[in-house]
Predict the structure.
Amino acid sequence: METLEKNDIKIIFKTDMGNSLANAIRRYLVEVPTLAVDEIEISRNDGPLFDETVAHRIGLIPLVMKKKYKEGDEAKLKLSVKKEGIVYARELKGDVAPAYEGIPITDLRGEQELILTATAKIGKGKDHAKHNPGTMFYRNITELTMDKSFLSEVKKICPSANIKEKGDKIIITDDQIEEVLDVCEGLLQKAGKEIDTKVGDDLIITVESFGQMPPKDVFQKSIEELQKDLKVLTKGLK
């Protein structure tokens, strides 16, 4: 496994993992438990949005999970604002914090107020989208063989491409963050040339977090949930 890019919300890496396993892990992201607002009690709402709309927007705000939570755990949040202007997620105060403080909730004018209390609970994305921890996608590493006459054009368009020269041909391996396969195929189609590609077994996987936890944790917890169900299946088969 080789990491190509890593930051607070995204990780991209190469791996020899099979497509079927990668797809299973991707599908099990909806089994990863996350915290999200489930109940809201609004005691005052002078703003232009209905109570239901305000509740819906707050429910979709990702909440940072800095500690381990289990099923049945709850976290409390409060919001009490009286001002002119936009009310942002950062104004929610309590046991947990929003992953993105700049998410707008509503817009107040003059002496308008918004006062509410919220209860966040553990849930899974398979039950409601607000609990989805992130997204994952992948592609196979592919080799494309082209005539050497395309070398300068490919380097100009895709300077980071992995290119090897072999006689009067060049072999481009699409194994970097920037996808070059579509660009090179477009050049061949434009020139009326045949496309010669070889799809490899290795994958480039991208995992993006919605903010509740680091992308590495999203990937690992999806694997853990998959392993749990595989153990149950194994016991059933025995």
